[in-house]
Amino acid sequence: MQKHVKKLEDLKEKKSALQEQEDKIKAEILEELSETLMAAQAIEIDFYTLVGGILDVIEKAKNGSKDTEVWKQAGERFFRARAKKKNGKVPISATTVEKGANLSK
After folding, report:
1. What is the Cα–Cα distance from 82 to 65, expressed in whole angstroms?
2. Do residues 91 and 79 lie in contact, with contact meaning Cβ atoms separated by under 8 Å?
3. What is the structure's pLDDT at 97?
4. Among positive and negative, which fits the CA dihedral 24, 42, 47, 76?
5. Which long-range contacts does 51-55 make (Cβ < 8 Å, 24+ apart)?
6. Considering the entire predicted model, what is its pTM?
7. Where are the domains of the chain?
8. Is residue 83 within 8 Å of 91, Cβ to Cβ?
9. Among candidates 70, 77, 71, 103, which has minimal Cα distance to 91?
10. What is the pLDDT, as a whole number, of residue 90?
């Protein structure tokens, strides 16, 4: 019985560590999204218009819109150009998206 309790405790610790890693990655993605919006001068767009546009994109992406491929290509171009300016550093969201990660719950 003691062996099973120890295994359960170990699994709980691993689960907690993984949750912390997931939270850290999500925070990094949100930070980069914020930086990307600033770099794209999104701050100059009316706030409600910007939020509405983002919500529209999310809805269309969830429903499998054909537009998503065009948006993806535009995003890839944006990050490639941005990475060249930043000494070749590839943004975390670009690498995460390329790996097909889905961090939403």
Report:
1. 26
2. yes
3. 47
4. negative
5. none
6. 0.64
7. 2-98
8. yes
9. 77
10. 57
Average pLDDT for runs of 10 along the chain of length 105 = 92 97 97 92 95 96 94 91 72 50 45
At 104 the pLDDT is: 45
Q: What is the dihedral of CA 19, 20, 21, 23, to 10 degrees?
A: 80
Give the whole-angstrom CA distance, residue 34 versus residue 68: 20
Joined together, the tokens standing for residue 14 give 């691993």
SS3 sequence of the chain: CHHHHHHHHHHHHHHHHHHHHHHHHHHHHHHHHHHHHHHCCHHHCCHHHHHHHHHHHHHHHHCCCCHHHHHHHHHHHHHHHHHHHCCCCCCHHHHHHHCCCCCCC
The pair of three-digit structure tokens given for residue 27, joined into one six-digit string:
């925070």
Structure tokens at 53: 């546009």
